[in-house]
Amino acid sequence: MTRRTMNNELLNSLQDSQAALLPDYQSLHAAMAALKRAIALASDETLDAIAMHKHLAKLEQAAAALDDPGLNAALEAFARQTQHGLDALAFEFARDLKEVFERRGQTVQGRPPTLVVDSLALHIDMGARKAQWFYGKEALTKPLPLSLNTIVKAYDQQTKSVVNR
Question: Model's pTM, two decimal places?
């Protein structure tokens, strides 16, 4: 065996090993990056549920690629805290929206994520920062930004269109 043949065999062996380990390395690297960002978000004095929700998908993807019990436990804790924060935001938003409608003499029923004003239901998705009006199961609007004025204006428009049917 010549020196050149031995070098090629060694080189091929090393490259094959590197190629075999690359997916694991990339998965670990992605998991470390996702955990680093999750740690930064969790370290904030006030937790930002919207930012946490946006990051949750990356953490879920990293956990799925590795199937590590410790990472899965951290993911579950992060997901619970994220949902808790989103729920708190939804209740605050619902309270503010309820006040707007009550000032107009209307009653709001239900609790987030679904509020009912007269015959229309508002489905709130805090993670997407959108809300959508429904009449029964029929969507009356496209998803709307979580703006009190926008939601009230859309309600007024949809109420007129439902009454005029």
Answer: 0.78
